[in-house]
Amino acid sequence: MLRVGPLGLGVGIFMLVISWTAIASANSPAPQTYVVNAENNTVTICPMSFDTRYCPDGGVMLRLDVDTREAVELAGFCDSGECFVDECVPAGTYRYGFAEPFECVEEANTDYFSEVTVEDDLGDCTLNPENSGVTPFSGEMAWSDWQTRCWGHYESSEEDDGCRGVGMLSARVLGLNLLVASLALLILWRRRRTT
Amino acid sequence: MHPVLQAWLLTVALETPVVALLFPGRRGWMALVCVIATSGTNLYMNIGLPRFFSDFAYGLLLGEALALVIEALIYGVAARKLEIVNPFVKGWLASALANSLSYGVGIAVL
């Protein structure tokens, strides 16, 4: 008979939980986030949300430079798909999102921003005449360093803005720990009975 | 107080008695092992992991799972060195119970 040691048992449970998480998440709707694409030095930012905030009236769209932490406000220049268009972006890694983040929803993750890397050095670049460019953002940055503001299936609470994000996640973490504790107790009990 | 420091102190304060209680006869040594192991996993989870995972949920889930596994193995190895019966099974039990308690209390009070 195959003997499974404590290490094997642990790895098995770990893999089981990780795969269970992926299956469970597949039932969730798409997150409220931003689909961001960089082509040469032009970045297109398409908001995906349940509260229909699109370009140009969805709010102030920000670009945060991950290295320098400098934030700028986009002008609200849009393409035909109601996506924000940021032209003449220098090479670097940036986070894009609304200055006022999406409201959390119960069924899906809600992101503060999406990240993109522009690889091309900025050569001669001219803005579209309708695009007034970017201006420094002087307001208070509402984003956390985590991309996700709220995790789907959060437990709603007035006190913490409904964004605690610990409902199903807590169940998974505690479930994993209690499952392992139960198995260990079972093994100890069986060993005690056989000795 | 910085939230990372709060989380670390709370974790050590809650987990150390649980681990010590589960290893009678070697409580002092196992409490010391717990302080060291828990400090390492908790600080890494709260400071190190967020740099690699931008998604809160997966970062937390992975961090908690890793903490469970790493602490269980450390307790198991330490318990075997101290000639405790069933060292690894007790290591898993100690890690799982201690982490359940600290996670549950942590999300309630922090």
Calculate the mean pLDDT score of chain B and round it.
84
Number of distinct helices of chain B: 4
Classify the beta-strand content of chain A into a percent band: 15-25%
The percent range for strand residues of chain B is under 5%
Identify the quaternary structure here.
Answer: heterodimer
Number of helices of chain A: 2
Summarize, please.
The complex is a heterodimer of chains A (195) and B (110). With 195 residues, chain A is α+β, with helices and mostly antiparallel strands. Helices cover 25% and strands 23% of the residues of chain A.
Structure in words:
The complex is a heterodimer of chains A (195) and B (110). Chain A is an alpha+beta fold and 195 residues long. Chain A has two helices and ten strands. Chain A has a five-stranded antiparallel sheet, with no helix packed on it. In chain A, a hairpin with a 5-residue loop joins strand 3 and strand 4. The longest helix of chain A has 28 residues, at 167-194. The model of chain A is unreliable at 17-29 and 153-162 (pLDDT under 50). By secondary structure, chain B is mainly α. Helices cover 86% and strands 0% of the residues of chain B. In chain B, helix 1 runs antiparallel to helix 4 and helix 2 packs antiparallel against helix 3 (56-81). The longest helix of chain B has 26 residues, at 27-52. Chain B is globular and about 40 Å long.
